[in-house]
Design a protein that fits this description.
about 300 residues, alpha+beta, D-amino Acid Aminotransferase, Chain A, domain 1, D-amino Acid Aminotransferase, Chain A, domain 2, 2 domains, binds pyridoxal-5'-phosphate
Length: about 300
């Protein structure tokens, strides 16, 4: 079941529409060029997690793309309507085996058809995929794939929109299909100068433990990766808990030498990496349990 609400500045609560019926112009540049931005948030326990951080990143992505965005209050109204609609549908369908406590709230805005001042903006709420929940428990086998550019390109080439969450995810999805075709679950991209970047839909985190000091490290944002809201929230919680924090630069050998590595993201949360390119890596279960408890408490 997917609930759809269009964001509409004239209607504070948004406009409810039928998610199973066509709703967009076939000439919309979001459709024909992937020209738009989006966010995916986790709804669980009656809360949309990290809503402020996601709305801030949506704003930043839209600014990078020079894309018009509805007012924040209009987004919040449409999100509240969509979540309420989803909850109403859930209670009507209680007993449905696909029904879980986790849903994906997606925010999308496109450039609209050629010549339009602004494109449509909408919110959907749908059940979270089961695969992500399974990978949290079982872990993931990862392959390193070359992204084909060096780690200083973002600065030199702002037109590449690096660091913005745009709708142009065809390459990310192709990388995931390639990983699956060779028996892996996921991908960590590397730069042409040998730096660790990010997953196609996730941020890389590694942990080490030295003389009782726990340390979390993630790649530097200057490499052009997306600033992860999950990584940000985990770092804030870990700092409170006395961990030390670091921001790259990371190379593949740092992953192989770490006590634990995860791919983190808003929906799948914390997926422990079990192997990289077929080689088993460190899996410190105590560190994993500690970080999992922090992730559970993120709001
Ligand atoms: N990096 C990329 C390319 C992503 O697509 C995502 C999320 O989808 C992330 C990182 C993780 O971001 P967040 O933790 O905000 O979900």
């Amino acid at each position: 079941m997917t609930v759809l609400v269009f964001v509409d500045s004239a209607t504070p609560a948004g406009r409810v529409a039928d998610a199973s019926a066509p709703q967009l112009l076939v000439t919309d540049q979001g459709v024909v060029r992937g020209d738009g931005v989006f966010e995916s948030m986790l709804y669980t326990g009656g809360t949309v997690r990290k809503l402020d951080a996601h709305l801030a990143r949506l704003r930043s992505s839209a600014a990078t793309c020079e894309l018009a965005l509805p007012e924040e209050d209009a987004w919040r109204g449409a999100i509240a309507t969509a979540v309420a609609g989803y909850e109403a549908g859930r209670s009507a369908a209680s007993g449905d085996p696909d029904d879980t406590d986790e849903a994906v709230v997606k925010l999308v805005v496109t450039r609209g058809a050629e010549g339009e001042a602004h494109g449509p903006a909408w919110v959907t709420v749908s059940p979270a995929p089961e695969a992500g929940r399974r990978q949290r428990q079982e872990g993931i086998a990862v392959v390193l794939l070359d992204r084909g550019y060096d780690s200083s390109l973002a600065d030199r080439a702002p037109w590449l929109l690096m660091g913005a969450k745009t709708l142009s995810y065809a390459v990310n999805m192709a990388a995931l299909r390639h990983a699956r075709s060779i028996g892996a679950d996921d991908v960590i991209f590397t730069s042409s100068d040998g730096r660790v970047l990010e997953g196609p839909t996730s941020t890389v985190l590694l942990a080490t433990r030295e003389n009782g000091v726990k340390r979390l490290v993630t790649p530097r944002l200057e490499t052009g990766i997306l600033p992860g809201t999950t990584q940000g929230a985990i770092f804030a919680a870990a700092r409170q808990a006395g961990w030390t924090l670091g921001y790259g630069p990371l190379e593949p050998h740092h992953l192989m030498e770490a006590d634990a590595v995860w791919l983190v993201s808003s929906i799948r949360l914390l997926a422990p990496v079990t192997s990289i390119d077929g080689t088993a890596i460190g899996r410190d279960h105590e560190l994993h349990d500690e970080l999992s408890a922090m992730v559970r408490d993120i709001r």
